[in-house]
Every structure is written in C-alpha cells, then in structure tokens.
Specification:
single chain; 124 residues; alpha+beta; GMP Synthetase, Chain A, domain 3; three-stranded mixed sheet; 3 strands; globular; SUF system Fe-S cluster assembly protein; Fe-S_Maturation_MIP18; MIP18-like; SUF_FeS_clus_asmbl-assoc
Length: 124
Amino acid sequence: MSETQTSEGPNVPAVESGIPEAELERLTDEIVTALKTVYDPEIPVDIYELGLIYKVDIADDRQVAVEMTLTTPNCPSAAELPGMVEGAVASVGGVSGVTVNLTFDPPWDQGRMSEEARLALNLW
C-alpha cells in the first residue's frame, strides 16, 4: 500500500443525484446568488462572502438544507438572519422547500471570509 493513499479508496460510493447535472448547477448558482442578497445588518458584506454559510444540500426532491453560523452566538441578528436566508433560497425557481439550521461548530472566525469581504471591511 502506498503511503500517499488517502482514506478515500475505490470503494467510496459516488454521490448520485436524481437531478440532472445542468439543473443541479443552475440551482446551485441561483442559490448562491440568492444567499449573496442576505446581509448581516451590522456588517456591509453579504453572509456568503462572510463565510457564514457552511453547507448547502439539495435533495432529489429539491428540498434545500442550509447549514449556517453567525459571527457570534449572541449575534443581535440571530433571530432574523435564518428567516432571511430561508426566504432568499425559497425564492429560487425549482426549490421545493428550505430548512435552515444554525450551528456554532466550528465557530466562525475571520479566516472564513472571502478576499472580497476582507477588502470591503478593510481587514488586510
């Protein structure tokens, strides 16, 4: 066995989607675009570029599950941001439903921000 072999071997099943690839790409692109319309009211950068979105899963029935965090557990926007995310993603054509789950594991830090966000907030 090679020392460079990873734990993912040939027996790891590929994730197959019941959604055609072109449709899945369109949904993904439009969901990201929708997420970029949601801003933390206290920070002039969208939540996607801030790195608050940890995961987006699109099920075969087009139900979307979003896992996100907040900049801090006691963020004043905790009550409104998940609803804003749900509304933005639900507005994408073809999405049949949205579930938003908040997590603080791992905790958010500035390293999750995009270069665009760092530039906007002058964090260089």
